[in-house]
TrEMBL record, chain A:
Residues 2-116 form the Response regulatory domain. SMART domains: REC (SM00448), Trans_reg_C (SM00862). It comes from the Bacteria. InterPro entries: CheY-like_superfamily (IPR011006), OmpR/PhoB-type_DNA-bd (IPR001867), Sig_transdc_resp-reg_receiver (IPR001789), WalR-like (IPR039420), WH-like_DNA-bd_sf (IPR036388). Coiled coil: none annotated. Residues 125-223 bind DNA. Keywords: DNA-binding, Phosphoprotein. Residues 125-223 form the OmpR/PhoB-type domain. This is Response regulator transcription factor. The lineage of its organism: Bacteria, Pseudomonadati, Pseudomonadota, Alphaproteobacteria, Caulobacterales. The modification 4-aspartylphosphate is found at residue 51. Pfam families: Response_reg, Trans_reg_C.
TrEMBL record, chain B:
CDD domains: HAMP (cd06225), HATPase (cd00075), HisKA (cd00082). It comes from the Bacteria. This is histidine kinase. Residues 184-237 form the HAMP domain. It is found in: Membrane.
Amino acid sequence: MRILIVEDDVEAAEAMCRGLVASGHQCVVAADGAYGLKEAGDSDFDVYVVDRMMPRLDGLAMVETLRRTGDQTPVLFLSALGEVDDRVAGLKAGGDDYLVKPYALSELVARVEALARRRETGSVQTVLKVGDLEMDLIARSVHRAGQEIDLQPREFQLLEFLMRHAGQSVTRTMLLEKVWEYHFDPQTNVIDVHISRLRSKIDKGFDRAMLQTVRGAGYRLEA
Amino acid sequence: MRIASLFRRTPFRLTVLFLALFTTAAASVLTYVYLASAHEARVQAEQAVDAKLQALRAIYASRGVAGLNQALIERATGGDDGLFLLRSASGERVTGNLEASPIEGLPDGEASTSFTLTEANDAGRLVKITAWGREVRLSGGERLFVGEDMASGQAFLARLSEGLWGAAALVFLLGLSGGLILSRQVERGMAALNTAVEAVRAGDLNARIPLRKSGDELDELAQGLNLMLDRLQQSMANLRHVGDAIAHDLRTPLTRLRARLESALIEVEAGRGDPVQALSTALSETDSLLKTFNTVLAIARLQAARETPDKTVFDAAELAADMAELYEPAAEDKGLEFAAEVEKGLMIQGDRAFLAQALANILDNAIKYTPAGGAVMLRARRRSTGEVEFSATDTGPGVPRDERARVLQRFVRLENSRSEPGSGLGLSLVQAVAEAHGGTIRLDEGPGAFGGYGPGLRVAILLPPA
């Protein structure tokens, strides 16, 4: 994947780049919104990672400009501003996700990959398939190797999110944000308990565990 | 106060303006009354003259010049204060109480005129009196003049105008001095105000405007400004408090982190420690430091602003149900019985994320401090007062009554809780969130002690309804 990082803090940008490269991606760094626009125009990227506050052209203005010119590349905003209003402003300007500084590198990588994936599977799907696991979104049923699995509504949503991001790491914060739709710090790892319950339902009795824990990052559903 | 500067003062200018208006109005009224009275006097004189002329002509018609002459003499002596003159056809004076006719020449038919008489008044002084009269030519060629003086009307007018001018002069004087006093007073009030504003501008936020206790609008303004300054000062103090709190609260963990890194470095240099282990410990310490920083900042901001930044109206029942659903597995995993009782339709106005955090904190505490085999219950209901109450009740060791206020303070952790992970900020944040929503936090004893459990703790968040 090619990722454009638009960030005026050179050190932070380099650290991001190293993290992305270590996960097998390529990255280009632009020091502000104006350079960012230029880079975005010169070549294709899979995801833009854009800092909100920069000299010259700020992140919001840059993304608004890109969207006006028809560029639909997913945008992950980075910001030191974490209030709900700031988040809403970022999403309104055309951002697809919002990450508040300071963040863990693993969180950034997971979100970038999730955004790129979302772009690939743009079409509306009614059945999700990962390995021998199958989810029918209309009948709201889940089967693994032909065997029906009974899930609670939230477990269903959780598995749907994991299946849509199969093969990628998803963090606990991402799950709380995208599945429960809450932005707060749950103190203890309540998400882990939900995952382990889901795991016992989809992996118990099968020879291979699909739902894996990624150390230091979160979870990954593997085919 | 110089005259020039006096004229720049609003109250004085208003006084002068109103005096001018009053004077113009008085003059207009006076002129109108004067003209109207003069006209009325003239009309009355005319009517009297015509009535007398008619009567005298009738006498002349029946009894001739001699009869008229007789009648005129009778009238002059009989108390008629009219003016009469009978002249012969050639213009010679025949009889009457006028020496000469005010009518010039010998016009044909009728002629009338206004004229002045000089008479001695009651005090013996000579005064001029306006009179009006008409002369008619009788059938025998004699001319009869009848006139009326308008002295009574004139005297009334003179008294009226004297009175009015006197009143106007008095009003003018009173108004002027009143305006001056008013200007002075306003000036004094404004001076106090200006002094205070000047002081604040120079950076003295303690400056206040002294109240004169008069309850007037200047006092009201002063009071408003004083309140504004109070609030401003409070905000500044809060801001300073935020800075102080953060500095104070982060110094300890930063110092600890630094010490850990330093000792790790020494160990690694000596070839003993594991660098990866040291780094990952440092990383997780940094994370918890950042978490602490964010929480302290959030508490300080909530306390400073006294309200949350993102207020929306939403159903707290949904929020409580979500939180119960989120925390139930964690409670059960620990071997706790978990129950949630959530009433439907609890509309409140607030910040959803902050309230979620507050509920998460009290649930997290309840689960953390209740030993396996115990129970945790979340309730959300509307009290009879209309307030929305969230409460988490546990069967853990509870918090002794005299410690309950203390555990709300930042970084306060009870002795027996130190073995559990935590920063000592959880309940402080809950309190800040509750208060920022105009609510309160309450700590009470739980269900009581039984079989080695308890007495438990009940933490309630009370919020005003939307």
